[in-house]
Design brief:
The complex is a heterodimer of chains A (397) and B (166). Chain A has helices at 54-58, 67-71, 78-93, 99-128, 131-152, 174-196, 200-206, 214-219, 225-228, 236-239, 260-284, 302-307, 309-321, 361-367, 369-373, 378-388, 392-396, and strands at 14-18, 30-36, 39-46, 161-162, 165-166, 328-336, 339-347, 353-359. By secondary structure, chain A is an alpha+beta fold. In chain A, helix 3 runs antiparallel to helix 4 (99-128), helix 4 packs antiparallel against helix 11 (260-284) and helix 5 (131-152) runs antiparallel to helix 6 (174-196). The two termini of chain A are 24 Å apart. Chain A has one domain (57-396): Cytochrome-c3 Hydrogenase, chain B (Orthogonal Bundle), CATH 1.10.645.10. Chain A has a three-stranded antiparallel β-sheet with strand order 1-2-3. Chain A has a three-stranded antiparallel β-sheet with strand order 6-7-8. In chain A, strands 4-5 form a two-stranded antiparallel sheet. Chain A is built from 17 helices and eight strands. Chain B has 166 residues and is α/β, with parallel strands linked by helices. Chain B has one domain: NADH:ubiquinone oxidoreductase Nqo5 subunit (Beta Polymerase, domain 2), CATH 3.30.460.80. In chain B, the strands form two sheets. Chain B has a five-stranded mixed β-sheet. Chain B has a two-stranded parallel sheet with strand order 6-7. In chain B, helix 4 links the parallel strand 6 and strand 7.
């Protein structure tokens, strides 16, 4: 922690608790703030209120059984978690995923990014006092959740991905509904921007607040929009393309000053880029399998299980015995809406992971919070927490 | 830079520190003696060719049953060079301690606190080594293999959090 010289204006410092039930801490985050008047001398995050031992549970689950648990990490972007985990397991197995499945994954991943950013924008604006944006964002988010429901049957905890592909093919009517959404969405985004981007009150609350330099941001391990707001050009979709991201054209928006306002601009622009990626993906979506056909590893389709004896046995064997990857260890990460989401899996050759470590972006991003708020005013804390876009589900795991 | 070049660069500079290296699924793992961790970490970060400026992840692995050690695993990434490396350092389970790398990457602070909380690994020189995820009165280290998955704590959470009120 950096020591701030106390320019004492009051006779004594006051310590207050912000959270774990404060609405602007976006979950069960508890901040211990030491205040001199309204200035923050020291900020200390306390986490762990939502600790469920997901990494421990993973050691007692087969590789497929763990997929639903990943939904419950970053629960506003469950699809990204599914994907990060599946990619790690596929890397461990050394297998290829059919092209159609890769593009389906990209479509849903980018829709997830939009829905996650919409929730961020809604709550971030609400925290700072702009209530209208909240209603608009939730309207669009609702449409995306309808699309998710069409695809996977669930609105929040999708668990749509399987090792080697996705659980079933896209349903009829999906293309049309998604096309309608992405045709309309850029205009909606402009609408949000008219409410905020040049709004004087918004700018006064965000410009120059929670500044972090590029060097510090890297040193503190920030990733995702929180890092790019400081002008560091690093996006895993570009640097280490996975799931066919190298076939898409998009730009990586960057900020300059590393303040709350720049992080806001970066995320808004990211939604535009995601929208364009979905558009491209719908146009180039190839025909073919939605899941790889490898006996003993990938699950057979539901129709096959119901009609063919061999498929039913195969399904039963995979569910009961699990898949057994070779001995070894892999780390693979994706660009989740919040930043670098990594899975480190150690396999001892059995059907359960020997060790599974999740590298949650929010955990690391939150670590830099004291650096950003110390020496600033109390209301800035709310703005900075919002701009980091944290989710306690993945911080505490 | 490819994996072989990174491995040979580190091995040539620290011949006695690297006890093994492995490439699996195109990922490079270097096994490092624990005394050399701070030195090698600084070298990896400050060497112009390598430039590992970003600590992606740091965690512990329990290998007590087979090897009698905990492994401390570092995942490093270079944003400007776009390459990765994994360092592994085995430490004996009787006295699990290793030097901190918080002076090299600030982000190591919480990662090391988590490894301390989950495995009881002590990081010498850490500025603020406290539990991070489990409650203050929590006993034991939950990710150790000898901690049962349905493990119950002697006190209920209510007793832990309300102990000052009685």
């Amino acid at each position: 922690m950096t020591a701030i010289p106390a320019t004492t204006t009051t006779t004594h410092l006051m310590t207050i608790n912000m959270g774990p039930q404060h609405p602007s801490t976006h979950g069960v985050l508890r901040l211990l703030l030491e205040l001199d008047g309204e200035m923050i001398i020291k900020a200390e995050p306390h986490i762990g209120f939502l600790h469920r031992g997901v990494e421990k549970l993973a050691e007692y689950r087969t590789y497929h059984q763990f997929i639903p648990l990943t939904d419950r990490l970053d629960y506003v972007a469950p699809f990204s978690n599914n994907l990060a985990y599946a990619i790690a397991v596929e890397k461990l197995l050394g297998m290829e995923v059919p092209e159609r499945a890769q593009h389906i994954r990209v479509i849903l991943c980018e829709l997830t990014r939009i829905s996650s950013h919409l929730l961020w924008l809604a709550t971030h604006a609400l925290d700072i006092g702009a209530m209208t944006v909240f209603f608009y964002c939730f309207r669009e988010r609702e449409t995306i959740y309808d699309i998710f429901e069409m695809v996977s049957g669930a609105r929040m905890n999708l668990s749509y991905i399987r090792v080697g592909g996705v659980s079933r093919d896209l349903p009829g009517g999906f293309m049309e509904k998604t096309r309608n959404f992405i045709a309309e969405f850029p205009a909606r985004l402009n609408e949000y921007e008219t409410l905020l981007t040049e709004n004087l009150i918004w700018k006064k609350r965000t410009v120059g607040v929670g500044v972090i330099s590029a060097e510090d941001a890297i040193d503190y391990g920030l990733s995702g929009p929180s890092l790019r707001g400081s002008g560091v050009n690093w996006d895993i979709r570009k640097a280490e393309p996975y799931s066919s991201y190298d076939k898409y054209h998009f730009t990586v928006p960057l900020g300059k000053n590393g303040d709350v306002y720049d992080r806001y601009r970066v995320r808004i622009e990211e939604m535009r880029q995601s929208n364009s990626i979905v558009h491209q993906a719908l146009n180039i979506l190839p025909k073919g399998d939605f899941i790889a056909r490898i006996p003993n590893i990938t699950l057979p389709t539901k129709e096959d299980v119901e009609t063919k004896m061999e498929s039913m046995i195969q399904h039963f064997k995979i569910i009961i015995d699990g898949i057994k990857p070779p001995k070894g260890e892999v780390y693979s990460s994706i660009e989740a809406p919040k930043g670098e989401l990594g899975f480190y899996i150690v396999s001892d050759g059995s059907s359960h992971p020997y060790r599974l470590k999740i590298r949650p972006p929010s955990f690391v991003n939150l670590e830099a919070l004291p650096k950003m708020v110390e020496g600033r005013l109390l209301p800035d804390v709310v703005a900075v927490i919002g701009s980091l876009d944290i989710v306690l589900g993945e911080i505490d795991r | 830079m490819d994996n072989e070049t990174i491995a040979s660069l580190v091995k040539n500079n620290f011949p006695e520190a690297v006890t093994g290296s492995e490439i699996f699924r195109n990922e490079l793992t270097l096994i490092i003696k624990k005394e050399y961790i701070p030195e090698i970490a600084r070298f990896l970060k400050e060497n112009k060719e390598l430039g590992f400026d970003f600590l992606s992840d740091l965690c512990g692995v329990d290998r007590v049953e087979t090897d009698g050690v905990f492994e401390v695993v570092y995942h490093l990434y270079s944003i400007y060079k776009n390459h990765r490396v994994r360092l592994k350092s085995p430490i004996t389970s009787n006295d699990p301690c290793i030097s901190t790398v918080t002076g090299i990457w600030n982000t190591a602070n919480w990662h090391e606190r988590e490894a301390y909380d989950m495995y009881g690994i002590k990081f010498d020189g850490h500025p603020d080594l406290r539990k991070i995820l489990t409650p203050d009165d929590f006993e034991g280290h939950p990710l150790r293999k000898d901690y049962p998955v349905d493990g119950r704590q002697p006190a209920t959470l209510r007793e832990i959090y309300r102990k000052d009120e009685a």
